[in-house]
Amino acid sequence: MDQGLVRQADIADVPTTFDASVVLLDVREHDEWARGHAPGAQHIPMGEVPARLAEIDGDAQLFVICHLGGRSQRVAQYLAGNGYAPINVSGGMEAWANAGRPVVTDDGGVGAV
């Protein structure tokens, strides 16, 4: 499989809730996550993904997100090369927030992107 061919999803095609069958993997850095993230997202910073692959459910529908879509694209390519079927979120958290979707902090407050 060509690692360059990772599926892309416009924000309108990304679910708003996540569970065991649908995962939103946020690969931004810890400080970005702390400022605000999608409710229910899983957080593994880009640099930690190789060491934490076992934490990512290969059976779930997997959406990968970062701030604008560049880092998540690279992570998605890496995951695709390791047997996953990731979908990169075009526009990232910027698009998520601009679509009026909720952004929260770890303590449940209103977050920012």
TrEMBL record:
Positions of the Rhodanese domain: 18-105
Record's keyword terms, sorted: Transferase
Gene3D superfamilies to which the protein is assigned, alphabetical: Rhodanese-like domain (3.40.250.10)
A Gene Ontology molecular function term of the record: transferase activity
Keyword Glycoprotein: no
Protein name: Rhodanese-related sulfurtransferase
